Amino acid sequence: MTDNKMTQALTTYQFTIDNAVAEWLAQKETIGSKRTRAEYEETIRRFRATLAQGGLDLLGNPIDIARIAALWANMRASNSRRLGQDVSPAMYNQRLAILSSFYTFVQETYKLDIPNPIKDVKKRKVQAYAAALPIAPETVEHGLEGIDRTSLQGLRDYALLAVALYTGRRASELAGLRGRDVKLQGRTQVRIQLTFHCKGNKVMRDLLDADTSAVLLD
Hints:
There is one protein chain. By secondary structure, the chain is mainly α. It has two domains: 3-110, no CATH class; 137-217, hpI Integrase, Chain A. Helix content is 54%, strand content 8%. It is built from nine helices and three strands, in the order ααααααααβββα. The chain has a three-stranded antiparallel sheet. The protein starts with a helix and ends with a helix.
């Protein structure tokens, strides 16, 4: 977009930036959660405050916004004990992804011919689960054996852990299971198929083995 067109867009749509942000946040809460909305709201608020220091806003010069975004995404909060150190690659990329989603929303919702200045900001490589450490099998077995399965609470805890260990599902996905998500399969040897409602409104299914199915049935 030329400078003249950008100026015209700013003149025409500057007064709607707040409304666009509000609508974008409302959409995130609808398809996500209140926690998601709060995270997005805090991110966009802090970024706009940084832009304002240079006399810019979200529909300003895309080159300047991209340059500032790369620096801002690496900044720690002023009250952080690790002030001055780089943020993690995952945090850096997440901040950029949140900002980028706003521009995508504006393009698709308002049909504005504006660039997404965050699109070409270089992301950082992330090693998934780099900090995660495996648990020794004997530790897991000892922990499961220590659960009192004579009580309803013990049966519940044992079943949840058994399903978690077998499927590797998130805690939120396990907690979201309902009776309608449980289906029995087979006759001589009953196995359970679980339907999980996952992040991003995805639906996924796991078929438990016979032993885990028996635990869950109990």
